[in-house]
Amino acid sequence: MTIKDIAREAGYAVGTVSRVINNNPNVSAAARARILEVIHKYNFQPNSNAKHLKQQASQGIAMIVKGTHNMLFASVLEKMQTECTAAGYNGMVYYIDENDNEVDRARQICREHKPHGVIFLGSDRNHFGPDLEELGVPCLLMTNTAATAAIANLSSVSVDDVAAAARMVGHLLDNGHRRIGFIGGDLTSSQPSSARLSGCLSEFSRRGLAFEPTRQYTVARYTLAGGYQAMEHLLKTLPDLSAVFAFSDIMAIGAMRALQDHGLRVPEDVSVCGFDGIELAGYLSPRLTTIRQPAERMAGRGVAILIRCIEEQSDAVHELVPYELLEGESVLRLPLADETH
Questions:
Q1: Which residues form the HTH lacI-type domain (predicted)?
Q2: Nearest CA to 313 among 27, 1, 3?
Q3: Which pTM was predicted?
């Protein structure tokens, strides 16, 4: 009789059984009663693999965060830590510089601290390959998809960046905008930026509109200063633009400041929209129109998936969570008859 057998007969997940065995309070009374009933029925000794693993090391789950400027990461990280604690794991956070290799850091952490799993937040897709399996523990990529990576121990949770970006571009086009500038990350390393630009191009193509990458797309760091500098560059390459879509709210806020410093009003002169749905976006004046990524839901699903992989040795899972377009006050509706916009 194993913990999986107990879970199967009780009708609950292995993780729930594990929490009951470890006397974790975050289990409903009904679930606890049913699981204990099955445990007593088979005289199951609570020395399951999951419990044994947790007793072997207190580090639990390593969370490697790349870059500290993304406010979305702060929300995701807080929820992940809460979820890990509730499941009986200790979430250990490691911050690394944007230029560091997160997989190399993970190797070091696994050697020194023996975590049961690793979560990557804000990662460079170029650093992930089959050698990730050498870590010997389940891994999870948060806010980026790893569905096409085909790495056996790497799961992922994200929104559909392609569809979400296409939706935002469609919103701008529906509001009469045609000369649209874009601010995003380095397309050779930023998977979200690459996917979001793909969605933008798809929507332009679907509507029979031309796109000029050298004029319309500007690379920036995911920071306020990055958004500011990119906006200044766009004002030179696309001086007649009517709207800007920044691939993060932080970059959008930096872009808004640059426009204001150049004497341009948002949205009267230039409309601005972002991506992430951070709390600050709703307190700006004007409120930022953005794509909201459900931070708490992503974090909850991510931790649940990783723990299942740890405790059940299950295959990698790639999950998309729903996004939402939040209409703020930063996009102006232009006369649709004016085809120059």
A1: 1-55
A2: 3
A3: 0.80
